[in-house]
Amino acid sequence: MSEALAVAVSAVVGIVVAVASVWYVNSAYGTSFENLYRVNPTVEGGGVGADYVAGNTDPLLDALIVVIHAVDVLMGVFILALVFVHWGAFRRLGARMRDHDEPAEVATDGGRDADNGGESA
Amino acid sequence: MDHGKFTRVTTYFHSLLALDVFLLFFTGYSVMFNDELWWMVEFMGGNAGVLALHRIAGFALIVLTVFWVTLMLVGPGRRKNFKAVLPTPTDAKAFIQDVQFVLGRADERHPNARQFAGYSSDEVPLLSYVGKGVVWIFTVELVLLMISGLLIWSKTGAAQLFQTKAAATAFVTFHGLLGVVMVMGIMFHIFEHGFHPAFYPVEMKAFVPKSVMPHEEHDDHEGTGIELLSLRPTWKWAVNLAGAAVVIGIVSVLVGSIFDSGYPIPAGLTPGGGPTSVLLTIGINIGMFVLLLGVVLSTYGNVLRARYEQQVAGEQDSEPETAADGGQPRDDD
Amino acid sequence: MAGVLDLVYVALALVVAVGGVFTVWWVGRDLDDGVDATSDLLRAVAVSAFLVLLAWPLVS
Fold this sequence. Notes:
Largest interface: A-B, 83 and 100 residues
Distance between the termini of chain A: 42 Å
Mean pLDDT of chain A: 73
Oligomer: heterotrimer
Order of helices and strands of chain C: HH
């Protein structure tokens, strides 16, 4: 398959899946407001809206939130470590490079001196 | 500019995905961190406007990711990429050597960690260990965020699915907490590719397709040759300022997420979205500023690409190289 | 106010962040990269103070 055809096919698949999934969640789960909260109180003697008194009573959801907090913290600490490793490495690499005043032979913009125009012109 | 990695399609995909994800962050976290980012909600059309924008961007995210997965499966020469993202023991070594390098106990970064390959581009693999991690974490995160996002797309649907309004909002909270890893990861990603001394202010590998990257022969040089490059004078304060902002942004978002677990009422009655402080407000706003910096750098990268392509118009690259997405480097010319 | 687990999380994040900014200062102090070591140390102190003061009202 050629590159252009592959891109076109993938784009069509992407749009079809996105439209279908949004259409599906809206048709399968899109109940009318009128049908909600009539008969499912969660506290004694409760009624419409009584669930707000109780908060979340789903233990699975509580567990999910506990797990995701732990994941956030662990990944956050790991990401912070990566930031510091790169920050330190960049400082070391920067110290190896030429000062601005010295003449440069190679520049990151593909050949021209970074100092005299190049990408920041 | 260093060796090329992205095909033309990948550069466009990366830029579009970035814009879309930034929009999702700005709309989603202005709702979750409403105590700190209330002004963003006002700015983006109030509650209804923000949530409409979030859904539009969410739709675009599904289009973009499904497009990408399909392209990886059917695109010419791309299936080998699935192998290229597998982590290897060498990647663990690269991370350890990076730590040693920072502490002054190694002379060079490991090839699997090197962002600037320079004269050593033959040793450097397609993806650095961080690159692999980024692909993995973002894939898992995006899939979970899309599924949980779709489940709460329809407000009444979510309420019906979770029996009580409190449970439904708890699931919305779960969706928000899920994205915290992603938002912290993106802040790091902005720092990693914006503030490398050889690439500062933006690493052009993500914007210039490898088919038009300049390619020179260089056999005899020891090391990467980074010492030949001239450091931009603004780098030395920019790297430290950005580093501080990224650290404050990550910690603030993380601390905010720990205490905003009660938004609005999953476990008990804690109206108002949990405690806040003036500095947390400033810190989370600094985090959003880091994200905004990402938008600016991404746009700037595309401006530079346009300029560069004008400059080399007519010239052709000669040698095909392997690409990060494994495509045929010359096909998209 | 805050649960024990929340305190542990906040403490962990602060220890890593504060440790990190001081490590960057420590790594950078002998480097010839044009950054003044004293202002670098001040930056580490400022970032640490900011983060501790940010978290304090939430956990106390």
